[in-house]
Structure formats: C-alpha cells, structure tokens
Amino acid sequence: MDRSRGDLGRRPRKRGQGELESQVLEVLRSAPEPVTAGWVQERLGGGLAYTTVMTILSRLLAKQAVSRSRSGRVYLWLAASDAAGLAAIRMRRVLDTESDRDAVLASFVSALLPEDERRLRALLDTTAEGRSAGSADGRPAGRRER
User: Fold this and answer.
1) Quick one: which of 81, 37, 75 has its CA closest to 60?
2) Contact indicator for 67, 61 with CB cutoff of 8 Å
3) pLDDT at 3 over 70
4) With a threshold of 0.90, does the pTM exceed it?
5) Which phi-psi region, left, alpha or beta, contains residue 45 (left: φ > 0; alpha: ψ -120 to 50)?
6) What is the chain's percent helix, strand, coil content, to nearest 5?
7) Is 130 helix (H, G, I), strand (E, B) or coil?
8) Residue 43, class by beta-carbon neighbours within 10 Å (0-12 exposed, 13-18 middle, 19+ buried)?
9) Alpha carbons 81 and 86: distance in angstroms, whole number
10) How far apart are CA 25 and CA 18, in angstroms?
C-alpha cells in the first residue's frame, strides 16, 4: 500500500450483517421514543446509505426484533428486543430449520464450556420453577406457544 496517501487508499472495515443489526438495535434502544430510519442513520455514522439502514430495519422487523408504526408518510421504528433477544431469535430460527431438534440441542450442549453449561442448567431450573408456579398448562404466565 502507498503510505504517502494516508487513509485515502484504505477501505472502511466492512461490518457483518449481525454486527450491523446489533448496532441498529442499540441505537433504537437509546432512542427516547419511536424514531425514523433517518434518525437511526445519523446516529450510526460511518456513511451508511439510507437504503442499507432500511434493509436492516426491514430484516429486524421480519425477525420481530423491532416494531414500526406509520406517522404521516414515514415509519417510526422501535426496538422490541435487545442484542441478547436478537441472538436468541437467530438461535431459535436455526433450531426451527432442523428436522432433528434433539440432535441439534445435544450437539449444542455438548460443545458448551463448563461454565456456560452451568449457566444453562441454572436458567433451565429457574424456568422449570416458573412453569410449575405459572399458568395451568405449565407455561409461565404470559408465555405463548409459537
């Protein structure tokens, strides 16, 4: 690379789709109220095209990680999930595409680090306790079938 050109010859680092989705969610979560795509674009910085922001918002809407409402001629966007919720949505989508859920879950659990396995067990125990104290059908109150 020609160092005399400074940063002119360098391309900006390309963000992955998941990283950009997380950044958009973070911006939406920091918003004081539902906001426009233009507002999101301004806060993201980095010269992202408006169409790129709209594409990411549309993908997040399809994943139910954001919601939108119409205000005149524009949509207002609101985070319905945080980064952890988005990761959970991705994990559930992968699991839903597999025919042998037991094998996928067994493989996932066997690949966990011991500390993560302890965390997962503790979360499952907490969820099981909530289910027994929850609704009559065994699910925690407010939880719905998908």
Assistant:
1) 81
2) yes
3) no
4) no
5) left
6) 60, 10, 30
7) helix
8) middle
9) 6
10) 11
- More confident position, 110 or 134: 110
69 with 85: CB under 8 angstroms? no
Least confident of 24-28, 58-62, 124-128: 124-128
Mean pLDDT (whole number) for 19-32? 92
CA dist 98 and 93 (Å) reads: 9
CB atoms within 10 A of CB 113: 8
Say which amino acid occupies 45: G
Output the six-digit token pair for 25: 């969610």
pLDDT at 143: 40
Question: How many residues are listed for the chain in this entry?
Answer: 146
Q: Retrieve residue 20's tokens.
A: 């950009």
